[in-house]
Structure formats: C-alpha cells, structure tokens
Design goal:
Blueprint lengths: L1 E2 L9 H29 L2 H6 L5 H8 L7 E2 L22 E8 L2 E8 L10 H16 L4 E7 L9 H6 L1 H12 L4 E10 L3 H5 L3 E5 L4 E3 L3 H8 L5 H5 L1 H8 L4 E3 L2 H13 L39 H4 L7 E4 L8 E8 L2 E8 L5 H17 L3 E7 L6 H5 L2 H14 L4 E10 L2 H4 L9 E4 L4 E3 L3 H19 L4 H19 L1 H4 L14 H17 L13
C-alpha cells in the first residue's frame, strides 16, 4: 500500500471556488429536505388532539438513541408533483432508512401521515418497493409504522394500483425468506392497504386509533347498504379479540413503539454475526477538502486519487495496473480495516482501461472483496482508432463483469456520469447494492452541449437538403436541448426519480461506505432459514 500525497492547495482559489459551489448545493439540498419535515410538522395540532405522535417522533422512539440511521431517498418525487419545484414537497409520503432497533439493524418504513394523511404517492410506491428490495437483498428485518389513507384517488393512476400489489408480494417474500415483518398500525390501514398490516408476522394495534378494514363505512354502505362504525368494522379492540388480525393491543403510540422494540429485541437476530473488529488509522487528509475537489463544471478534469486519499484508511491505496490504461483508476483500500476495491475515472474509459477494470472486477470476486465505483466519467472513448481497437467489444466485457460480479457493489456519483460510462461504472440500471450521489453529480446520455450540437448538425443537414438553412431556428433548437438536458441531469431530478438511494454530503462518504460494508458483511453471515410460505394468521 502506498500513501496518496495531497496535491491540493487548501487555500487555493480553485479549491475555494469549488467548495463554495458545493456548499451552495448542500444548502439547497437541506432546504428542500426540510420542506418535508415542516409539512409533516404542520399537522402537529391535529395529531396532538388525537393523542398521537408525529411520524418522525414515532421513528425517533422506535430507533436506538444515538445509533446511526441511514435515511434513504429523501428527494423522492421532488418537482414531479408540481410544475414549480420550489413548492414541491419531496419524500413520497414515506420516511425510510436503515437503523438499529433494540440493537438489531433493521429496515424501517414510516407512513408520513402528516402529509396528505399518508396517502400513497406515485414515487412513494417506488420508494417502498426499493426499500423492500434492499431489505431482502441485505437480509434485514422489516419494521413498518403504518398510518395511511391508502391510494390518492384525486391522483389515481391504474398503473400504480396494479404495481402496488408488489408491496404486498414483497411483504410475503420477506416473511418467507425468514426476515421478520413487524408492523405498528398507528391509524388507518384500509382497502388494499389493509394487507400491508395483514401480511405482517407481528402486528401491534393502538386502542381507539387503529383502523383496518377492506371497506370503510362509506364504501360499505354504497356497496352493501350495511351501516357500521369504523370501530365496529376494524378497530384495534375488535381485531385483537375477535378477528385475530392484531397480536398486541397498545394504549397509545408510545406504548405501541415500546412493544415493537420488545418484539425485535426478543428475536435472537444477531446470533452468529461477525464480532471481529480491526485496527485502522483515519485518512491523513481532511475530509473537509472533499468539498473543494470537484468543480461545478463536469468538463473540467479531476484527479480522483485525491478523493480516495480522503476516504481510505491512512490514505493508503494499492493501485492495480497503474501504468496500463491510467485514465481508469483501479486499486484496493481499506475502510475501517476492511478491504474495498475502488474503480474510478481520470478521463474517458479507453480499451486498456476497460480491460484493466474487467480484470480487476474478476480479481475482487475471486478474493470476495466488495467494490465501490466512484463515478466521474464522460463515457467510453469514441473515434475511428478506438473503434478499430475494439472499444465496443472490450467495453462490453467490462459491462459483463459489472453485471455478473459476485461481490457487493456500491456506486457513488461524484461528478459526471455520461453515456455508456454510466453502465460500465455500475449505474442504477446494473443494480449496485447501494447507489448514492454527491450534490454536484450529473447523469445523462451525453452532455447537453454535445446533444445540442449533434441535433443541430442533423437538422442543418436536413435543411440543406431542402435548400434553406434557418440559423435562428438552429440556435433556438440548441438552447432548448441544452436547457432540457441541464434540467434532467441535475441530481435534484435524478434523485427525485429514485435513480439513486439518496444524496450525501461528500464529507460523509467514508462513514457511509463503512456502514454499507457492515450491512453487507452482516448479510453475508446471516442466513435466515427460508420457509416455503410466509407466516400466516390463524
């Protein structure tokens, strides 16, 4: 291992300019995320009148105090529900993340009932499906705090209704995989949403607050003419004494969360998990400097080794094939003592770089070393010489290696992610175990200016065939394409579309990677006894 020396000038003009740009993006990120908290908290008076806790207060009581909580997809749906994104509230109506409950790492999903009564939003559906997928892949018990008005009928889309069935299918799959599903139904769980409660292994209900039924009083009267109160149809007392749907009757939210923690704590889940710890030295270079490494212009070059130097133990890096295809940087580091393969980009991926990355991925699989892709790429090299050298063939080998890798793969979008470089560097479409972005990240099929120029060339040729070139029309076309690309490649759009699992402060990259490696190590050691069926109610 060799220590990476810093080439940054801590007080240099470039670093300060990049830092200011990154801090500005972080300020915007936190301001957008705070809208969700504020919108939910605006319902405080209504919750308090009912003797209830706000959703984030419930989450805080469920989780172990002081333990890490990795919140996921905080920008879900941002700007997609309102043309004016400055008024949009992100999150998809769901608070989700990985945290510790009674000392056990769990996936937690909370209905944010302070926003639209917890009605399911389109990106909220995708967010729930993603966290269920992560729970299955990482062998995490699944805890859900439910209070939802069900589908948003004002924004009804038949495709959401049909795809929503995957939520219930996944709950059954979690249970059958030996992953306990624990549900606290704090309020309404109606119609199809009643199965969100019903498909759980352990169900806690709250006296006088829980409502679980397939048809509420209005629909029941409309469909059958029968008249019944909400409590008679689906109250907690009825379900815990008559129907048998509920297992535990709590007096209020606090009591329900206490019971949920006791349920999780009674499961001997950590049996057999690795207890080994390793000595390590922190990076020699300040993580604060990560704010100043990446320029706001993705076309400007960056030495990504300087990023590695600020996340690796003791800033040590063992380069792989350092002098062959040097624009593709491969090598091994340690994060809190645990080995991690790194692949990143100091320029476009050429034939030697693609071959080196393929070899390195296979070597990591042989040694069972997880891989992180620090994406900052404009893509694969183009041009006659590169085509003759077999760029497509060798790039395809790299993509095959990424696709079929047998070790956990993590992706961090640090800068540009353009063209097939997104694929070869394990973009979202290639199912990395986790995928996160820095606030300056840009993702697109190509840069906006390149796209605009390409279309202008094609359009101008068509105009010439017709005998007249309209320069003003060409200029307007190019501006329109650049604007469209710039808007869509922004992390505030890509993360809203769940093309990552969240946007992080660059300074948190090392801490995040340590968490992800710990999650994956535990998942590898934990082999729940699968069952043919999920747990069924009597």
């Amino acid at each position: 291992m060799a220590v990476i020396e810093s080439t940054l000038s801590p007080h240099g003009e470039a670093l300060q300019s990049h830092r200011d740009g990154m801090l500005s993006l972080l300020d915007r990120l936190r301001a957008v995320e705070s809208r969700t908290v504020q919108a939910s908290a605006a319902s405080r008076e209504r919750f308090e009148k009912r003797g209830q806790l706000l959703p984030r207060e419930r989450l805080a009581l469920l989780l172990d105090p002081g333990a890490p909580f990795l919140e996921l997809s905080t920008l879900a749906g941002f700007g997609l529900d309102k043309p004016d994104s400055e008024k949009s509230v992100p999150g998809g109506g769901v608070i989700a993340g990985i945290g510790f409950v009674s000392g056990i790492r769990c996936m937690v999903s909370v209905s944010d009932a302070g926003i639209d009564a917890g009605a399911l939003q389109p990106m909220g559906l995708d967010k729930q499906l993603r966290v269920q997928e992560l729970a299955l892949e990482n062998r995490l018990p699944y805890v859900q705090l439910v209070e939802s008005a069900g589908a948003n009928l004002m924004a009804y889309r038949v495709e959401d209704f049909v795809r929503g069935g995957n939520i219930f299918r996944n709950l059954a799959r979690l249970s059958a995989a030996g992953l306990p599903v624990v549900t606290v139904t704090h309020g309404s769980s109606t119609a199809g949403g009643a199965y969100q409660t019903g498909l759980s292994d352990h169900i806690v209900m709250v006296r006088d607050r829980t409502r679980a039924f397939l048809a509420g009083p209005p629909l029941l009267m409309a469909a059958t003419g029968e008249v019944a109160s909400e409590e008679e149809l689906g109250g907690a007392a009825m379900h815990t004494t008559v129907s048998g749907l509920g297992d535990y009757l709590a007096e209020d939210d606090r009591d329900a969360l206490r019971i949920a923690r006791e349920i999780i704590g009674a499961i001997d889940w950590n049996r057999g998990l690795p207890q080994e710890s390793r000595d390590f030295e922190p990076p020699r270079h300040d993580a604060e400097e990560l704010l100043g490494i990446m320029p706001m212009d993705p076309k400007r070059p960056v030495d990504m080794r300087q990023v590695i130097a600020r996340i690796a133990d003791d800033s040590d890096f063992l380069p792989f094939g350092e002098n062959h295809g040097p624009a593709t940087v491969c090598g091994t580091v340690r994060i809190e003592g645990w080995p991690l393969g790194v692949i990143t980009n100091n320029g476009p991926i050429d034939v030697p770089g693609a071959n080196k990355a393929t070899h390195f991925i296979q070597a990591c699989c042989q040694s069972r070393t997880p891989i992180v892709y620090l994406q900052n790429t404009t893509g694969y090299m183009v041009g006659r010489a590169h085509e003759e050298a077999g760029m497509i063939k060798h790039g395809s080998k790299m993509i095959q290696a990424v696709t079929n890798a047998t070790v956990p793969q993590f992706t961090i979008h640090c800068g540009a992610s353009f063209g097939a470089g997104n694929y070869g560097m394990c973009g979202r479409g290639f199912h990395p175990r986790f995928c996160f972005s820095w606030p300056n990240a840009r993702t697109a099929v190509m840069g906006g200016e390149q796209a605009a120029r390409t279309m202008a060339i094609v359009t101008e040729a068509a105009m010439r065939r017709k005998g007249e070139v309209d320069t003003a029309k060409l200029d307007a076309l190019q501006r329109q394409i650049v604007d469209r690309f710039e808007r869509q490649m922004s992390v505030f759009t890509t993360s809203a579309l769940l093309l990552d699992d969240g946007v992080i402060d660059p300074r948190d990259t090392r801490v995040l990677l340590a968490q992800l490696m710990s999650i994956c190590r535990d998942a590898e050691a934990k082999q729940p006894q699968p069952m043919q069926f999920s747990v069924a109610r009597p």
